[in-house]
Design brief:
The complex is a heterodimer of chains A (213) and B (713). Chain A is of the alpha+beta class and 213 residues long. Chain A has 8 helices and 5 strands, in the order H-H-H-E-E-H-E-E-E-H-H-H-H. The longest helix of chain A is centred in the N-terminal third of the chain and has 21 residues. Chain B folds into 3 domains: 150 residues, Aldehyde oxidase/xanthine dehydrogenase, molybdopterin binding domain (Aldehyde Oxidoreductase, domain 4); 302 residues, Aldehyde Oxidoreductase, domain 4 (2-Layer Sandwich); 146 residues, Aldehyde Oxidoreductase, domain 4 (2-Layer Sandwich), CATH 3.30.365.10. In chain B, 29% of the residues lie in helices and 25% in strands. Chain B has 19 helices and 29 strands. Chain B has a 7-stranded mixed β-sheet with strand order 3-5-1-14-11-12-13, sandwiched between helices. The chains are: A alpha+beta (213), B alpha+beta (713).
């Protein structure tokens, strides 16, 4: 937002010529040459090790524990969680950053895990719904969803719970109007929004303005 | 109904903790050992003939375990998205690469993907034959007021959040383990068995949770068959194949469109005297679409009517049942046309629908429901004639729609087992598709045994349990409540028989209340449930119960015939064309309400689906390419939490309705909402926007056409 239109154009132009230079190098640039090149990547490219196309071993910090996993660099965090780590609370629904069913919290920020590459999530604190509460216990948001029947088929529910958790971390005392905007990034097909509205307010009251997880 | 201790109470759903903590394992979540990933190659053309197909490049890719050509050279394809080949590989990424390596050449053929203009459909339209009642020509000639209009609702897709698909393992000795996302657990072995030529008894279906079906998940499907063969061809390793979102929206079912030109007539006092409609619809390539003979909806005892309906075949994926097949579309067109007629007569549509209520099948019920909805909406205080005349660009209006549905319970069998330690299993091959079936079954059993729902262990979603019907047509609650009630009563009878000598009374003098077995009228002669069951020693009690739909009405535990009225209050910004929902009122009966909390949730959800249908949802086809342009969730729009206004639900819980018995609720509240919202919009802005969804474009066009508002300041 800070750069002006002109500045962006200038950057793009320089990136373009930079790409031409990289292409000239030949080996190892195939991956970069096919995509749209961000200026930052172009600048950093010579010193950044390239990943792939074969599988790479990485470690992800998930729910406070290191998780080792070997996957292709193109694998999304969502697919890493679901296909490699059996953490299936996050669901794959739209698979392109629209519906929120795959919501997780990364470094305290609510994110769609289908739009994050697993290799880019290295070194970050990833929280999934499985890490919200100790086994056998329910997080206040989950409990409020149950209390207010804020689920039917339940497929959107884990993503919604994570979005609500992140929302309440930032807005511990929400007004009904706030949550209509703050939770607009998640979709439910069964139509459980009435219950979710009540659940978020109840969870906010029960968490007494503080995060428990 | 006052004596019930469990049924009729607003209990929380049993699987709520599992769902809201992410622990519930859907079949798309399961990951058996050695799992492979399956992917489909689909056809990019709406109409084409395959000239060649070569799967060998895919077979050479490391990690690929099986490749299957579903189509062969010479096969004709009738819609984009048709399954052409299937692949299994060790990783999902490899499977996707391998699909791209398959070489298919097509001869592209001419296609039709639009049905909105009947005149352009040519031979692709098939007329159903005219139906005439009374003398419509004479009636229109003599009528004091007539109204004409064009109305339409497009094809919608189910957009189940868990896409269609399954995990299959073709085990040794042709034993098949099958984990589908289905509304039809007990029906799956026969359906899949037929398509893979394996006896149904060899197929074991498992499904604990299911991520939405709405009518689209009854068959085992071609992708079920291919997934099974991929597993077989991969040496029996399990294969997971769930459709990607684009394929899901193209080929996994849709709700047929309905377009109509309608002429109506009334007397000056508002008496509805004649209906004439020319309607058409598409359900994809195969013949189908909406049943046009339902016109006019609910008010079908009108003396004079003429109905013509055509089914249009287009080159697009096929229809499937969608909550309340036919009804939302026919209700929308009918209620829109009658609302226009009421405006011509210059009376409120509430008064019009009340005045003609004798043309419905249940005049007293609809009168009461219309009045109740009007009270909750403050209709008589807030209603104004067509066109909000208050200053400013935002106009407000009210509208209504009506609904009816059957909802008699399907065939169902249930087995109840009582163990000596007092634990109770209630097992049946039904499924909980989000409607809280698991909780309902537990409530019926708990009521019968005098226990709490947490003391009942419900088993469902498994073909090892007695068969129960598919969950469609609002038939599940009726079916499973009868079978589980009867099985519970039978099992309890065995306990009573055993205890009677010990307690010194006849078995028919015993009752189960609050965790005790006691003598009726003498609660001092009692023992706890645990003490009673301990007397079984090493035996268990195992009893069956059954619902047969053909006997159900006679037996009287359940019933059919739900009625509903919905009203909408909307605001329309005549500068931007944006329609916002202020409030929706839904008045609904469904006989005996087992759980008012989850029943209300169903109705809230149905109203929200109607908001989607009225304002957002539309499968957009491109005639140039033959593609679905919005086979994704950015442009196939669903309502979010901020789009739905306030929803007020009134469940008609009365002794009279309770005495009718249990009636299904999944479909009834999905019917009337689109009409209510469209009519409220017409009431607000003074002109009819005939086609939903009521997008800003359409609203502005209607306003421009009517010339009643300036669009730009």
């Amino acid at each position: 937002m800070s750069s002006t239109h002109e500045e962006v154009k200038k950057k793009r132009k320089s990136a373009f010529s930079r790409r031409g230079f990289l292409q000239g190098l030949g080996a190892g640039t195939g991956v970069l040459a096919t995509g749209v090149l961000e200026p930052e990547i172009a600048e950093a490219a010579p010193s950044t090790p390239l990943h792939g196309p074969d599988a790479v071993a990485i470690t992800l910090d998930i729910n406070g524990k290191p998780s080792k996993v070997t996957l292709e660099p193109r694998t999304t965090l969502l697919d890493a969680l679901r296909n490699h780590l059996d953490l299936t609370g996050a669901k794959r629904v739209c698979d392109r950053g629209t519906c929120g069913a795959c919501t997780v919290i990364i470094n305290g920020k609510v994110q769609y895990s289908c739009t994050v590459l697993a290799i880019d999530a290295q070194g970050k604190k990833i929280q999934t719904i499985e890490g919200l509460a100790e086994p056998g216990r329910m997080h206040p948001v989950s409990e409020a969803f149950w209390n207010n029947d804020a689920q039917q088929c339940g497929y959107c529910t884990p993503g919604f719970v994570m979005a609500c958790k992140g929302f309440l971390d930032r807005n511990p005392n929400p007004k009904p109007e706030d949550l209509k905007k703050g939770l607009g990034g998640n979709l439910c097909r069964c139509g459980t929004y009435m219950g979710i509205r009540k659940a978020v307010l109840e969870a906010a009251a029960n968490m007494k303005g503080g995060s428990r997880a | 109904m006052d004596k019930r201790r469990v049924m009729g109470h607003p209990l929380k759903r049993l699987d709520g903790p599992a769902k809201s903590s992410g622990r519930a394992k859907y079949n798309s979540d399961i990951h058996p050992k050695d799992l492979l990933f399956g992917t489909l190659l689909t056809c990019p053309h709406a109409h084409a003939r395959i000239t060649s197909i070569d799967i060998t490049p895919a077979q050479k890719i490391p990690g690929v375990t099986a490749v299957r050509a579903i189509k062969k050279a010479g096969d004709e394809i009738q819609w984009a998205g048709t399954e052409v080949a299937a692949i299994a590989a060790t990783d999902e990424e490899i499977a996707r690469d391998a699909v791209r390596a398959i070489k298919v050449e097509y001869e592209v053929l001419p296609h039709l993907v639009h049905e909105q203009d009947l005149a352009k459909a040519g031979t692709r339209a098939k007329a159903a034959g005219e139906q005439t009642v009374g003398d419509p020509d004479q009636a229109f000639k003599q009528a004091e007021v007539t109204s004409e209009g064009e109305y339409g609702c497009p094809v919608l897709t189910h957009c189940c959040l868990e896409s269609h698909g399954q995990v299959v393992q073709w085990g040794p000795d042709n034993k098949i383990e099958f984990w589908p996302s289905t509304q039809n657990v007990s029906g799956m072995p026969t359906d899949l068995g037929r398509s893979i030529n394996v006896p149904a008894s060899q197929i074991h279906v498992h499904m604990d949770y299911m991520g939405g079906g709405f009518g689209s998940k009854f068959p085992s499907d071609l992708w079920g068959r291919e997934c099974a063969f991929l597993s077989r061809d991969s040496g029996g390793r399990p294969v997971k194949l769930f459709l990607d979102r684009a394929t899901e929206l193209m080929i996994a079912g849709n709700r047929p469109s309905l377009y109509a030109k309608v002429k109506t007539a009334a007397n000056k006092d508002g008496t509805f005297v004649a209906w004439e409609s020319q309607s058409w619809s598409t359900g994809g390539y195969s013949p189908g679409g909406v049943n046009g003979s339902l016109f006019p909806y609910l008010y079908n005892k009108v003396e004079n009517k003429r109905i013509n309906h055509s089914a249009v075949s287009i080159n697009a994926g096929g229809q499937r049942a969608w909550r309340a097949p036919n009804h939302p579309q026919v209700s929308f067109v009918t209620c829109s046309a009658l609302d226009d007629l009421a405006a011509k007569v210059n009376i409120s549509s509430l008064d019009f629908f009340l005045k003609n209520v004798n043309l419905t099948n249940k005049p007293a019920v609809y009168t009461a429901q219309l009045e109740k909805a009007a009270e909750l909406m403050e209709w008589r205080k807030n209603w104004h004639p067509r066109g909000d005349t208050t200053p400013g660009s935002v106009k407000r209006g009210l509208g209504l729609g009506v609904a009816f549905w059957g909802g008699l319970g399907h065939d169902s069998q249930c087995r109840v087992t009582i163990h000596p330690d007092g634990s109770v299993d209630v097992d049946l091959g039904t499924q909980d598709i989000g409607t809280a079936t698991r909780t309902m079954v537990a409530m019926v059993a708990a009521e019968t045994f005098g226990l709490t729902i947490n003391q009942i262990n419900v088993g469902l979603g498994d073909t090892q349990f007695p068969p129960s019907g598919g969950s469609g047509g609002s038939t599940t609650i009726g079916g499973v409540s009868v079978s589980s009630r009867k099985a519970s009563v039978n099992a309890l009878g065995k306990i009573f028989d055993m205890l009677a000598p010990t307690m010194g009374v006849n078995a028919d003098q015993l009752e189960a209340v609050d965790g005790r077995i006691q003598q009726k009228g003498n609660p001092a002669n009692a023992m706890t449930w645990q003490q009673a069951c301990a007397k079984l020693g090493t035996q268990t009690v195992s009893e069956m119960g059954e619902n047969l739909s053909r006997n159900a009405l006679k037996e009287g535990l359940i019933n059919q015939g739900a009625s509903g009225v919905q009203m909408a209050d909307v605001s329309v910004d005549t500068d931007t064309g944006i329609v916002r929902i202020n409030k929706i009122v839904a008045v609904q009966d469904c006989g005996l309400v087992v759980n008012p909390t989850t029943a209300r949730s169903q109705i809230y959800g149905a109203c929200i689906m109607s908001v989607c249908g009225a304002l957002m949802e539309e499968r957009v086809m491109d005639q140039q390419t033959g593609h679905v342009l919005n086979a994704d969730m950015e442009f196939y729009k669903l309502a979010g939490i901020n789009d739905i206004g306030e929803i007020v639900v009134h469940l008609d819980i009365t002794p009279e309705n309770d005495a009718r018995g249990i009636i299904g609720l999944g479909e009834p509240p999905t019917i009337a909402g689109m009409a209510a919202i469209a009519n409220a919009t017409a009431n607000a802005i003074g002109v009819r926007v005939g086609h939903v969804p009521l997008t800003p474009n359409r609203v502005l066009a209607a306003l421009g056409k009517a010339g009643s508002q300036r669009r730009m300041a």
